[in-house]
Amino acid sequence: MIPILLLVLAAICLIASLIPLLPFAHGMVRSFDFGRLQVIAVAAVVIVATLTFSVAAPTYLVTIGMAAAAIVIQLLHVLRFTPLWPRQTAGFTGDPETTETISVVACNVKESNRDYHLVADMLCSARPDVAVFMETNAAWGEALKSSLADYPHTILQPQENSYGMILASRYPLSDCEVRFLLNKEVPSISCVVTLPGGSEVRIIALHPEPPLPVRDTYGRDAEILLVAEEAQDEARPLIVTGDLNDVAWSRTTRRFLRISRLLDPRQGRGLFNSFDARYWFLRWPLDHIFHSRHFELVAIERQRFVGSDHFPMYYNLALTGGGDNETPEAPHADDIEEADEAVRIEKGRDRRPAGVDWED
Hints:
CATH topology of the largest domain: Deoxyribonuclease I, Chain A
Distance between the termini: 45 Å
CATH superfamily of the largest domain: Endonuclease/exonuclease/phosphatase
CATH class of the largest domain: Alpha Beta
Largest sheet: 6 strands, mixed
Number of helices: 9
CATH architecture of the largest domain: 4-Layer Sandwich
Number of strands: 11
Structural class: alpha+beta
Strand content: 15-25%
């Protein structure tokens, strides 16, 4: 019985590893992008259990082979987010007192979360230059008002559908826009921050819709890739941040990085899993910051639990010119074509985004 059970588990791990290789923009396929760490863990347990209990079983080699293949496939995706991989963003080694820096917190508060004080305490402790909050409704806007007293420049977009946003800055903002790129219920924020030294940094904050097993992922993918194409043409230092509802190693995120030519500071450092904050065994990196070649990394930290299903993420970047950064991967031949196709499909329909009733 145990050998058969282990064989079945190994087969499930292998199938779960192969499904994301399918080039389909559907939640039933793309959902398998998320649990790569969990598949590695289960496959490793299967190998150990097989070596312990089932060496004499006729299925021994097949079980080991399938589990090992699953681990290899998954590691090809997640290994770049470990210290074993070269760092894409160079670590800043200069003096922060003489170099312009910008620190950012990205925090999905979870609209139904009522632990307002935990978010306020986190903001007080982290003291970022710019704070981006997602899933903020009118109640969250009111609850954070006193905490944002030190942030005189704000962009407020409260919504009661889990897609509200707040961007708050200690430094002056210009060219501020709340944009509905592809769906009239899903906002994003674009603005330019002027640092104390006079340098301008453009920030784009996103929170596209989540994938669901019962519908396609064009809504999420198209918004992410539309911003990638926009980033291509941005000459100023650029930061893209938010809960992208996609993992760092996914097909769409990799395509985003190739098209935008932005860098991911987690590569070569760690996973920094930000979701699900409530369950230690079901976590993956959903909350991101990507930046242009102008920056080097001062610090990246996952913040403490704030009552949400997301951990807030803190990033501090130094504006150095980034000469020591790794050269971004160039776009593949079909990247722009497939990005444009996703945008065309999503622009051509009118539907409510996923998750608008989850917090009711």
